[in-house]
Amino acid sequence: MKLAFSTLGVPGLPVPEVLALATAHGYHGVELRAHPEEPVHPGLTAAERAETAALFKAAGVEVLGLAGYARVAAPGDDAPVVDEIRGLLQLAHDLGAPFVRVLPGADPDRPREESDAVAARRLGTAAEDAAALGVRILLETHDSHRTGADVIRVLGPVGHRQVGALWDVMHTWLGGEQPSDSYAALAPHLGYVQVKDITSAEDTTPLPLGAGVLPLTECVDVLCRHGWDGWLCWEYEKRWHESAAPLPELLGEGRDHLVRLLGEAA
Q1: pLDDT tens-digit series, residues 113-130
Q2: For residue 184, what is the enclosing H or E element?
């Protein structure tokens, strides 16, 4: 498996400095948080996109994907959501990134079946753009659709190879789903896996990998047991927890921990 980290852990850090961290600590790729407050977002000009892609290529680091914030199950008209996804897809294409992350974001007061249908319809519409650009849209296990079982209720009706799943191991755990069940649900659709660690279900402040309660060993075991050879991406949520330790000083030990888990599972 290849290892990456998300720029959610280094808010606002310029791309050259992000790449320096990746190369210094042996990460193969970076997941870019595609938000206007970050250096990389859909508002970049063609020249800025080309420059960013060139920086990654020169460093020998891959752009794993763009972590977007389109909420595919949210109430409202389809057009703004689909347009947001299309903007992310074009940016991913321009940067050479294979994946775009989207979130569910369903209204908890709305019938589940309605939200699922809205999400499937929007993803199905955007899937044709994704196919044309050679990028996959990944629906993350998150918020209203925390578990693998939740996500496949949407992906099943979409039925398009360019629409898949992103397994965030924290959310499936918070949803009470065992890693083996998450993998079984998501495996046919799985793009990559976000790993992390936290203090408890009540306190999701990010911790160094292996220092918290999340079942990282079990998640890596199930992936290895089934011969899955995709990406593990450390999403350290520093942006939402300013008191958390700085990610740069944790990256080396984090990589070592993941390599150790992979070695033990092999």
Answers
A1: 999 999 999 999 999 999
A2: helix 179-186
